[in-house]
Amino acid sequence: MVTLADVAQHAGVSASTVSYVLSGKRSISATTRERVERSIEQLGYHPNAGARALASSRSNIIALMVPLRTDMYVPVMMEIAIAVATTARTFGYDVLLLTGEEGPSDVRRIEGSALADAMILMDVELHDDRLPLLREARRPAVLIGLPADTTGLSCVDLDFAAAGALCAEHLAGLGHREIAVIGEAPGVYERLTGFAERTLSGLRERSGELGLRLLHRPCEGSYAAVSATVGRIFDERPGTTAFVVQNEAATDPLLALLRQHRRAVPEDVSVVAICPDQVAVHASVPLTSVAVPAQEMGRHAVEQVVAKLAGRGTDEVVLIKPELTVRESAGPRAVPGDPL
Amino acid sequence: MVTLADVAQHAGVSASTVSYVLSGKRSISATTRERVERSIEQLGYHPNAGARALASSRSNIIALMVPLRTDMYVPVMMEIAIAVATTARTFGYDVLLLTGEEGPSDVRRIEGSALADAMILMDVELHDDRLPLLREARRPAVLIGLPADTTGLSCVDLDFAAAGALCAEHLAGLGHREIAVIGEAPGVYERLTGFAERTLSGLRERSGELGLRLLHRPCEGSYAAVSATVGRIFDERPGTTAFVVQNEAATDPLLALLRQHRRAVPEDVSVVAICPDQVAVHASVPLTSVAVPAQEMGRHAVEQVVAKLAGRGTDEVVLIKPELTVRESAGPRAVPGDPL
DNA sequence: CTGAAAGCGCTAACAT
DNA sequence: ATGTTAGCGCTTTCAG
User: Fold this and answer.
1) Which CATH code fits A61-159+294-321?
2) pLDDT grade, residue A289 (50/70/90)?
3) Cβ–Cβ under 8 Å, residues A179 and A210
4) Is B43 on the interface with A (CB under 8 A)?
5) CB contact (8 A) between residue B50 and residue A45
6) What's the pTM?
C-alpha cells in the first residue's frame, strides 16, 4: 500500500508538503508541486480514506436515506439516487446508501460515528421521526420532499401546488370544464407524504378561480383498480372531458381503458399527467405532462449540502418551478353537436 | 463527541477493555461487560468510523456499483440495491453507492483509498474493463451478472438459460407449437450483457428438443415499437399462439396490442414473461412468469462478499434456479376448428 | 515556501 | 481477565 510518506520520500519532500499539494491549502512552488504530482502518479497513490477522515474529521461522504418501501414510484427514487451520486462525485463526495429501515437510530449512528459529513433524506413524511434529530445534529441535512414544519431544515422539492395549478390552467385553456383527478394510492395519502395533497390543493384553488368542476379519486396502480375508478368517474360525472393523473403506475392502464371505452385521446378526452418525463414519453399516447424533475432535485440537494458544508448556504426551501410539456394527450374540448 | 476513552473512564476500565467489549475478540467478565455497556448506553457512544478503519484497516463498507444508464430495467436495479443495503446492515456493513461512471478508475480509487472492504458490481458486461482490475485486487468482489470469463471471480445471477428452457417447456406442455420471443431492446444485445443471449439459447435449445418453432425479435419498450414488432410477427408467423417476453417495458404494450388485435389472453394467445414479480402481478392480465429474483440476488451477493471477508468462501458462480409462477396469461393452445 | 511533530480515536500486539 | 502502548496514515499547527 502506497502512503503519503512514500510519496514524500519519492519526491524528496516532507509529508506535509505532499498533503498541501493535495489540499491546496497553502502555496507550493510550481517545481515541487510538479515533482510531487509526478510521484503520486508514478506510485499510484490514493489517500487513505480512514486516516484522512480521522485527521480532518471529514469523511467526504454524504449519506443518502432512501425509503425502504420498494412499492412506490421506484423509478424516480432510483433516478434521484443516481443524480445524487453523480453530482456528489463532482464535488469530491461519495454517497452512502441507507434504507432508513432503522429510523431515527440510523441518523444517530451516522452522526455519532462521523461516517458521513451530511445527510440527504428522500420521501420524508410530514411528521417524520427523524426531523427533530436532524435539527439538533451538528451535520447538515437536506430533505427531498417537504415536511409539515421546515424550520431549521433545508428542503428541495417540486412545487406540486404550482404543478396542480398548471394542469388546471392548461385544461381550462383548452376549454375543459369538468375534470377528474386520478391520484396516488390511498396508502400514499395515509402516509402523509404531503406532495399528493399539495398537488390537489393547487388543482382545487386554480380550478375554483377558473370555474372548473373537479372530482378527485385516489387509486391503486393496478389495472383493475384504475378500471373501477374510471368507471365510477364516468358514472358520477358523465360530462368529464379531461383527466389529471398523478400516479405513475396508473397512466398506462388509464390510456388502455379509455381506448376500451371508445374514447379517443385527445379528441374525446384529454389526459394530463404529473410524472417523470420517461413515463410520459413511453406511454401509448405520449402524455402532455408536468415532469417530476428527479435529476434536478438530486442535483439541488447535493449542491445545498455542499454549500452548507463549505460554510456558505443556509436553511432554505427550494421549490422547483414546474413545467408543462405539451405532447399528444391533451386537446381542445370536443364541443357537443360539433362532430368536427 | 464521545470517544472510547470517555467510555473507559466512565466505566473505570482501560480503553482496550472497551474495545474488546465491542469486538468480542477476547473474553470479558460479565460484570465489566455490563458496566461498559451501561456507560456506552449512557454516554451515547458510537465508535468513530475513520479511526476504526485506520486502526483495523477495515471500513465495514461494501461498495456497490450500479449502472449509470438509468434507462434499463431500473426497478430491478433499485430492488437489488435495496436488498444489498439491508442485507449488508445485517452483517454490520454499510453500502457505498457508486455509479461506475468513472469506470476502472473508480475501482482503483476504492481499492487505493481503502474506502470499502469489498465491491459488488451490477450489470457487468461480458468483457468489462473492470474485471482485470478486480481479479488483481486485494479486496473481494462479487458480480451480479455473468461475464464471459468468470475465472477468479464470484458471480450471482439468475440461470437465464434455464429460465428460457422453463418457458419453452411450459408452453409446449400447453400444446403450443409456434412461439414468438419479444426480447430486450437492441441496445441491450449490443452491450453484450449476456443475460438476454443466455435466455435465448436456453429457449432455443429446449424448443429444438420439444419441436417448437421459435421466432425472436429484439424490441424497444415503447408502444410504437412493440406494435410494429407484434404486427411483423403475426405477418411472418400467422400460426403464432404464444409469446415469451423478456422486456419489462414491453409487457403492458403487448397486452394492450393483443387486445386491440382481438386476441384474447390466454384463450387465443398465451403470454409468458421473464420479469420481476411486481411487474407480472400488476399487468392488465396477471402474467404467468419467471421471476427475476432481485432480492435474492442482492442477498446472495452480500452473503458471498461477507463470507470472503471472513476468510471463508471462495470464488463461486451461483446461478439461481428459475421458478415459473402460473398466473392468468398462459393457457392451452386453441385448437383450430374447436370453438370450445 | 517548506519541515517537524503533535495528535485524531481506535485496534491489537505485548504484558501481566 | 484486564491494562499498557505502539502504531494506523493523514492533517495541521508551530517553526523557520
Assistant:
1) 3.40.50.2300
2) very high
3) no
4) no
5) no
6) 0.92
